[in-house]
Amino acid sequence: xxxxxxxxxxxxxxxxxxxxxxxxxxxxxxxxxxxxxxxxxxxxxxxxxxxxxxxxxxxxxxxxxxxxxxxxxxxxxxxxxxxxxxxxxxxxxxxxxxxxxxxxxxxxxxxxxxxxxxxxxxxxxxxxxxxxxxxxxxxxxxxxxxxxxxxxxxxxxxxxxxxxxxxxxxxxxxxxxxx
Length: 179
Hints:
Blueprint: H1 2-6, H2 40-50, H3 52-60, E1 96-103, E2 107-113, H4 122-133, E3 137-141, E4 144-148, H5 152-162, E5 171-176
Helix pairs in contact: 2-3
Region (Disordered): 58-107
InterPro entries: DENR/SUI1_TIF (IPR050318), DENR_C (IPR046447), DENR_eukaryotes (IPR005873), DENR_N (IPR048517), SUI1 (IPR001950), SUI1_dom_sf (IPR036877)
Protein name: Density-regulated protein
């Protein structure tokens, strides 16, 4: 008999119908779920400003007087993008390195690295090199362009001509390298 009361369907006597759901103006979720939003502090500020009574209820159930102290509550990271953090580029020396590597018995490729430190789009640069030297050219690494053929000597004139921010002194010749 006790289970029949638990599984009873239909409206409950203690609830006023229709149920009014209050949504947060910051995260657009019901205010009970604001704590799972990555920017919970902004939700609290919005609630304090626009719905002070609901804010008092949230403060009571916040659990801020827990014995954990200053340790921050870990939140669930799944279920959406949340806050996208941008990667900071490492500020290293701005320098373009040019080298030649063997390909097969008699053929070679020219490897150009360091163009991304000058914020040059590598795909655009690879296409430019391919058209300029009438050969294949591709982006092979995070900051590496491989040009088919030995065009290392020509690059010392072509790169400063195409990109004036790269001075001829900033281009370093690494010579022949093993691939």
